[in-house]
Amino acid sequence: MSRQEAELARRIEGKARRLGFDLVGIVPATPPQTTGHYRAWLEKGYHGEMAYLARPAAIAGRGDPALLLPGVQSVVVVAANYYPPPPSADLQDPSRGVLARYAWGDDYHDLLVPRLRQLGSLVNAASAAYVDTGPLLERELAARAGLGFIGKNTSLIHPRLGSWLFLGELLLTRAVATRHPPPVQGTCGRCTRCLDACPTGALVAPYTLDARRCLSYLTIELKGPIPREMRPLLGNRIFGCDICQEVCPWNRRFARPTAEPAFQPRPESVAPRLLELIALDDDGFRQRFQKSAVRRAKRSGLLRNVAVALGNWGAPEAVPALVQAMHDAGALVRGHAAWALGRIATPDARQALAQALPAEPDEWVRQEIQQAL
Ligand code: SF4
Ligand code: SF4
Q: Which of 77, 98, 196, 349 has a CB 3.0–4.6 Å from the CB of 341, allowing a cystine?
């Protein structure tokens, strides 16, 4: 390691900290060791409909960072704590929806990618910035860079910060000295709380997530209908799921609220009323979530989830809004509204279903209505 490389590493770490990153590590851009694990995960179909994860280029890129940035020599790995202060509203209230905590504030991509690029501008070399780009590559890189260990819930856990962390990577075509945060030891030991608490059994084994059963996948990545048998398991979770992090003792003991202004909770994203959300039209959705990661679910995906949560709430007062949703332009919304009306099953709900059936043009929605009746 030359003095120049060590000096550059010191400057990168200092700048990353000034940019607001809580943890910084630098490692050589050697291929990761878990590509085999990743391939086996894909072969089992655990990625569900996320076909982009199984494309040959995606697999190759995870196995060789040089395919992402030719000539890459070093990777700077950063982590930003996003843990928000305690919620102002009751997350257990079934008339309200629960969003994953990472979506309570501003969209982290909009904030962290520009910051990583700023960090890259410090180095006279080609660079590429990534945030949240893959389930295994970035966590393994983060662990190699000394940012923590990978827990049985598949999160990267830092033994003094917990796992409420956004990860980012900056690839550089320049050699930089290896650098780790001060070492702190941690492991899962014999704990299995996350596996025991997962409502869907998505953690099929320690360190192995079947995304097809995970509420994060079902409420965000999945574009079509939510499998019927999974719908009751959503409860009031309408965008992502935090349960396997909430129960983790490392988070319970060490998580501290973030100081980052952009990650402070927006009141409209913390336990919003389901009846407000189901009434959102396209403009209303855009306005409400224009700076939020919730945009990823799109209006039809969010309202699909909200309809399921209303069905799980089961309150007769949700019936008028669900009847209105049966007139939505999107079949996805109508079909899940039908399911919810079937769960509530008041005479009004059943009458609305019976009236909707003859005029329903979509075959899948017709099936949903018939099963709901
Ligand atoms: Fe299970 Fe929720 Fe964790 Fe997914 S995010 S593995 S559904 S607890
Ligand atoms: Fe590991 Fe327990 Fe945390 Fe799961 S809940 S990640 S097993 S420490």
A: 349
